[in-house]
Amino acid sequence: MADATPQAVDNIPPAEVPEVELYHPKSWWTKYVFSQDAKVIAIQYSGTAIAIGLVALVLSWLIRLQLGFPGTFDFITPEAYYQFITMHGMIMVVYLLTALFLGGFGNYLIPLMVGARDMVFPYVNMLSFWVYLLAVLVLVASFFAPGGPTGAGWTLYPPQAITSGTPGGQQAGILLMLASLMLFIVGFTMGGLNYVVTVLQARTRGMTLMRMPLTVWGIFTATVMALLAFPALFVACVMMLFDRLLGTSFFMPALVEFGEQLEYGGGSPILFQHLFWFFGHPEVYIVALPAFGIVSDLISTHARKNIFGYRMMVWAIVGIGALSFIVWAHHMYVSGMDPYFGFFFATTTLIIAVPTAIKVYNWVLTLWRGDIHLSLPMLFAIGFIVTFVNGGLTGLFLGNVVVDVPLSDTMFVVAHFHMVMGVAPIMVIFGAIYHWYPKMTGRMLNEAMGQFHFWVTFVGAYAIFFPMHYVGLVGVPRRYHELGDATFVTDSLHSLNAFISVAALIVGFAQVVFMFNLFWSLRYGKESGGNPWRATTLEWQTPETPPIHGNFGKDLPIVYRWAYDYSVPDAPDDYLAQNDPWPQKAPASEAAS
Amino acid sequence: MIAALIFLAIVVAIAGWWLSRQRLFSKPWLETGNAGLAPGTEAINQPASKVGLGVFLAVVGALFALFFSAYFMRMEFPDWRTLAMPRIVWFNTGALVLSSIALQMAVVAARRGRLQALRQDLLAGAAAAVIFLVGQVLAWRALAELGYFATSNPAYSFFVLITGVHGLHMIGGLIALARTAVQSAGGEVTERLRTGTELCATYWHFMLLVWVIIVALLAGWLNEFADICRQLLV
Ligand code: HEM
Ligand SMILES: [Cu+2]
């Protein structure tokens, strides 16, 4: 334990991080619109992501209306239904969750938490947002294109994605979808370079990797994964564009359509599935890892206790990140693969559950005998743990080939991934917004509205997705517009479906309250001060709230400790900020600022 | 997905090597004060642009590795025929090699502060790269005249696709090179100019490496390698 002795703090010279040349906005336009400040970009990213996410929310109501009350709504034709599910899935996964976690939270939190003045390439960072916005606009344009958006399912499997029987397949729909995805990837790469290099390069003095808050670890690892995984989607998109526009046969086998032999021949739809899931599975952890990181910080802060097993948490994040690149084919068990192949992927899939489980244990052990404050962020964090465990367990079912084969393509899968990748990360996003909104605006979100929002969302999400497991076990397939008169579809199943749909509408309504709260509290929220949660991480120690351009005052903070010094015995307060030199005195340079 | 996995293994090895020096086994909860300021755990002591380029090249590498993976997988289907490489591709390869050499000489000139030589080398490098691109356009036309239409041979589709993506990356590189060349019009070799030259050269060498693999792949030299991998898997 020799390394535990704090050495004389006065030895630390003042911040040696070279001062970067900050760009200085000259007009309203460059300050709020074409801004290069990561915090402004973060808000732009978040606003756009939430706006397009609301579109996806409305689509989910339409899907549920059809499933709960089939035959009642004439405008939901089979084509429209496919378009709704496709756009709902794609928007939620890529344009909402990925963009919000990395573009939104990444931009806001990375520089502040590692003690940097801004991202290292602010101009590229700004471009990243504008390309993302363009991608979203192209996506929205497909709703207005002749033939409407694509209805190929969010997995866009060929050949059907580009054949004429699929909505948008031979029209603009699929083209706009592919173009939008490619733009998104280009834009994300620009941003991702920033997030990674900022963590590598711009950490303030004393901020070693093992002192970084887990939020930064989560976002950092997820970004590295995204940078390596998105190219797979890009390759798949380009090749499909070639097939569709130039008539190549990368993915397209010989096909007869309406009695006519198409020009294609010899291509492999399975090739697309490999490429798609080589991106697709890492993608689920790209969404999950930032959530893991953020929730660790929320739990520790709101339970006034250091995170249990910090090192293990870091290793688990990195381990999950690496492992998730070798499990992709568990999405393809029913594609007719070699059984040995399936065995390999089932093994890796189940191995990845180990670090995941470690993380869950550590969250629970952090709560154990903590001083739990049931604040809104804490409520959402607990909601996350519960829903995530639930979804992780069904993942174990699906990871085994023999169990998956009958369950694949049923509503059980839909329930699994909504629990684990829909509800759970969204819980974290809400928790994070309740947690950091005071830093971003200087005001607290309204507590009563927040409580309403939490309970309706949490209970409602269970009401929606728990019965859905059962629906899937009974055998109801996913992606069916109407079930028809199959014998296994009983009356009680119909009423269950109706119940789920009603719950979905109610949960949707709760989100409207949340949106209202965001705007209402901007004006009428309680003033928060700089550090309302008495948290340790650097973003709470900024001289101004909300932090101004450049984040910190004259000198960058110096970091003396890790991010989880809560309830330290003998300390003057129940927390020690990362830049608090206790038990030593602050060096002269810091005291002066 | 063999090619992609091999590439990832390389990335993991590099990342693992770096992480292994970050004291991931330290106990941060015990270390307050400057005990955590062990050497080597600070921010990386390199210009951000160099680290940024390194990360970017990892992304570009992933992109091409995935194209190669797709190529190998598509190869297994019965309609596959190896491509007859247009002759001009060999000439183009030569141009690209010269371009890389010129930029390496530019780096040397920049380090020694010889502005005149630096300018010449940058221009020579750019010219050779442009010749490469023009040659590629000719190669596509040559293939098109042979009558390999997109529908007739998937190897031809891959040729257009992969060399096209490579060409786009070269065009992007040329834009960066042009900006560096404009800077070299100033009176002296600044720090910025030197870094810019180094970045361009690194990018060029990387694209040359990618190109060599592309040619080896399309000419069928890696077919045996693909067979071995396939046997390992089955
Ligand atoms: C304990 C770990 C997990 C295991 C073993 C697991 C296993 C699986 C398997 C085998 C499937 C394919 C089911 C089928 O199509 O037949 C699947 C689907 C899915 N999983 Fe997981 N999963 C796990 C965790 C996660 C996490 C953490 C997320 C997201 C954050 C996630 C998101 C998804 C999604 C989105 C799908 C469906 C994709 C689609 O077909 O549209 N899973 N999971
Ligand atoms: Cu998966």
Secondary structure layout plus pairing:
The complex is a heterodimer of chains A (593) and B (234).
Chain A: H1 28-33, H2 38-68, H3 78-114, H4 122-144, H5 172-201, H6 214-246, E1 256-257, E2 260-261, H7 269-302, H8 310-323, H9 339-367, H10 376-399, H11 401-407, H12 411-441, H13 447-474, H14 491-524, H15 588-592
Antiparallel strand pairs in A: 1-2
Chain B: H1 2-20, H2 48-75, H3 88-112, H4 115-146, H5 154-183, H6 191-218, H7 223-233
Bound molecules: protoporphyrin IX containing FE (HEM) and copper (II) ion (CU).
Describe the structure.
The complex is a heterodimer of chains A (593) and B (234). Among the domains of chain A are: 34-251, Up-down Bundle (Cytochrome C Oxidase, Chain A), CATH 1.20.210.10; 528-588, no CATH class. In chain A, 62% of the residues lie in helices and 1% in strands. Chain A is built from 15 helices and two strands. Chain A has helices at residues 28-33, 38-68, 78-114, 122-144, 172-201, 214-246, 269-302, 310-323, 339-367, 376-399, 401-407, 411-441, 447-474, 491-524, 588-592; strands at 256-257, 260-261. In chain A, β1 and β2 (260-261) form a beta hairpin. Chain A is globular and about 85 Å long. The two termini of chain A are 34 Å apart. Chain B is mainly α and 234 residues long. The chains are: A mainly alpha (593), B mainly alpha (234). Bound molecules: protoporphyrin IX containing FE and copper (II) ion. Residues 155, 284, 287-288, 330-331, 349, 353, 356, 392, 395-396, 398-399, 404, 408, 413, 416-417, 420-421 of chain A line the site of protoporphyrin IX containing FE.
* Terminal-residue CA separation of chain A: 34 Å
Proportion of strand residues of chain B? under 5%
- Structural class computed from helices and strand pairing of chain B: mainly alpha
Regarding quaternary structure, how should these chains be classified? heterodimer
Question: What is the CATH architecture annotation of chain B?
Answer: Up-down Bundle
